[in-house]
Amino acid sequence: MDFGFGPEDEELRGRARSWLREHLVGTYAHARGLGGPGSEHEGVEARRAWERELGRGGWIGQGWEAPDGAYGQRRLSLTGQVVWAEEYAALRAPGRVGHIGENLLAPTLVAHGSQRQRDRYLPGIARGEELWCQGYSEPGAGSDLAGIRTAAVRDPADGRHRITGQKIWTSLARDADWCFVLARTDPGSRRHRGLTFLLVPMDQPGRIEVRPIRQLTGTSEFNEVFFDGAVAAEAVGGEGDGWTVAMGLLALERGVSTLVQQIGFAAELERVLAAHAASGADDPVLRERLVRQWAELRTMRWNALRTLGGSGDQGAPSVAKLLWGGWHRRLGELAVAVRGAEATAGPADWGRESPYENGLDEEQRLFLFSRADTIYGGSDEIQRNIIAERVLGLPRETR
């Protein structure tokens, strides 16, 4: 497929830009640039309201494999989705709080759920009214998802599953209305067998507890979630089919969203380049690192477009994660290298305010938060194993 933008895409670009400019006013204008990885604590209420604004405009669920307007959404082509994503990022619209439901759960329900489940859950996501979080990782079972121990037992009284266990690194859990949970429903099973994909309402006082995890940046976008007999509404794909459903969902984590992410990366790189120019430094090694960083970002964009255009392979999501995780971590290192010794001091030392609890500025936050980029979302080691075993056909790692 030759991935390119046609006349219809450019017409959509104009409409998308006009809609965003018309609606990014008032409270929403003040929320521009707020939210996203490392900053999920910013402007949560305004961003929740913005999610509903997007829903009223029909901009949620553009890529769902469902008829146009079936759930209140407008269906866009792949290039159209990229156009919308680029315009959204270019105008620094608020960071999405509904992306987990829209981009992970909804396509999973389209692929593995029943029609009744799609009719129940997709409209709330499309309207921006119901937010979701992901209950996958556990202590001791992060990248190795098959090692989860959270258990779910079917209650003979009502046929529903009761969940007991702990999940960790759960983004947006404090604000979510629902959580999709991967739990072990066969107590004698091992690894990927005996797992079930459950839909769980979060409003269960005494049965679900959310504890924020304070990070190096002073913020707490990740959480621990404890289930103590929490009641699941239902299962997707049937009991024991959780691994198939979970793997189908993980394959959706990359895609158009990768291009949006890269626009944010480009803005961060521009700030680092501007800081370097303002410093007047003439270090050839540092200049070479900056040029390489710029070139690698362009390469990532071409790779993402190639993958979206149908030229990718089974390992494409893992390649994408390896590329951007390492790139962003190196950018954080560059941000403090450009600042030099000044990077060891905080804004409070210069009489400036900081949006972060421990007095960091943007470059310091970027450095600290990006240390985790090669770990979360599947560590580099796991991504390399996927490429080696599933794509290259190399022998499995000895366990």
TrEMBL record:
Residues 133-228 form the Acyl-CoA oxidase/dehydrogenase middle domain. The keyword Calcium does not apply. Residues 240-392 form the Acyl-CoA dehydrogenase/oxidase C-terminal domain. Gene3D superfamilies: Acyl-CoA dehydrogenase/oxidase, N-terminal domain, Butyryl-CoA Dehydrogenase, subunit A, domain 2, Butyryl-CoA Dehydrogenase, subunit A, domain 3. Transmembrane segments: none annotated. Pfam families: Acyl-CoA_dh_1 (PF00441), Acyl-CoA_dh_M (PF02770), Acyl-CoA_dh_N (PF02771). Keywords: FAD, Flavoprotein, Oxidoreductase. Its cofactor is FAD. Residues 7-129 form the Acyl-CoA dehydrogenase/oxidase N-terminal domain. Belongs to the acyl-CoA dehydrogenase family. This is Acyl-CoA dehydrogenase FadE. It comes from Streptomyces cirratus.
